[in-house]
Design a protein that fits this description.
single chain, 100 residues, mainly alpha, 4 helices, elongated
Length: 100
């Protein structure tokens, strides 16, 4: 039966191979995978490492500022929340106007 591993597992194997503290055969035995898989994951990690840092930069450029509608929606929800908290505090015997 063919095993499928999640990305965290693959990353762990690749990082351990990249560290070089153990041989590929030792890592393969430790994680019960084929030595070729250890090599492939190590190579993939080394090739894709630069993309990790490029993604952050590209993500910042793509981020759009909030539109006016989004901001008005946020203001509305905050006003509702404030009204609710004001009514609860009055019900509990706290008067928010006197605390100012």
């Amino acid at each position: 039966m063919k095993k499928s591993h999640d990305s965290k597992f693959k990353g762990r194997v690749a990082l351990e191979a990249l560290r070089g503290e153990l041989t590929v055969a030792e890592i393969a035995g430790k994680y019960q995978v084929h030595p070729n898989q250890v090599q492939q994951r190590k190579r993939k990690l080394m090739e894709g490492a630069s993309e990790i840092f490029q993604f952050k930069k590209a993500e910042r450029k793509e981020r759009k500022p909030d539109t006016e509608d989004d901001l008005m929606r946020k203001i509305g929800s905050l006003e509702i929340e404030n009204d609710f908290l004001r009514s609860v505090s009055t019900f509990c015997g706290l008067n928010p106007e006197k605390l100012k």
